[in-house]
Amino acid sequence: MKKEEIISLFQSYEDSVCIIDETECWSARDLCALLGYQQWRNFTNVIDKAKDFAAEMTSVNVQAKDLQGEASITQEHIDNNAAVRKMLTERGIIPENLPPAKDVKKVERRLTSEQKKMLKNNNK
């Protein structure tokens, strides 16, 4: 993602904020549109995109703030992830309560790969 795209996405994100009782919040439907999803119910993809967004925010801020060293960059990344998580939980999306579909698929692929290796080793 180019710096200009990130800045544009960030500005769109900021422009879509709603203030309710002095608290910033975003509509899940608005966020999905901002993040390129057609169906607002597809939260697992939105969360993956949110993690990517937080990482991209860190990347841009490291350059913009001229952050140096592991400690300051790590803190920036933590702050960005916390901000994204706060926004998600305020909208009722709790990441750990979502189905672990991707994790299950990763384990299945690893298991299949290990089984193939074992079969090859047994055939030797």
What does this structure look like?
The protein has 5 helices and 2 strands; from the N terminus they run H-E-E-H-H-H-H. By secondary structure, it is mainly alpha-helical. The chain has one domain (3-98). The protein has a two-stranded antiparallel ribbon with strand order 1-2. Strand 1 (18-20) and strand 2 (23-25) form a beta hairpin. Helix 1 (3-15) packs across helix 3. The termini are far apart.
- What form results from the Cα inertia axes? extended
SS class? mainly alpha
Q: Count all strands and give the number.
A: 2
Spans of at least 5 consecutive residues whose pLDDT stays below 50 are: none
Q: Any idea how many domains?
A: 1
Helix content: 55-70%
Count of separate DSSP helical elements: 5
Please give the radius of gyration in angstroms.
19 Å
Beta-strand portion reads under 5%
Topology as a string of helices (H) and strands (E): HEEHHHH
Separation of termini?
A: 47 Å
Quick one: biggest sheet? 2 strands, antiparallel
Average predicted local confidence, pLDDT:
77
User: Can you list the strand order of the major beta sheet?
Assistant: 1-2
List keywords for this structure.
extended, mainly alpha, two-stranded antiparallel sheet, 124 residues, 5% strand, 2 strands, single chain
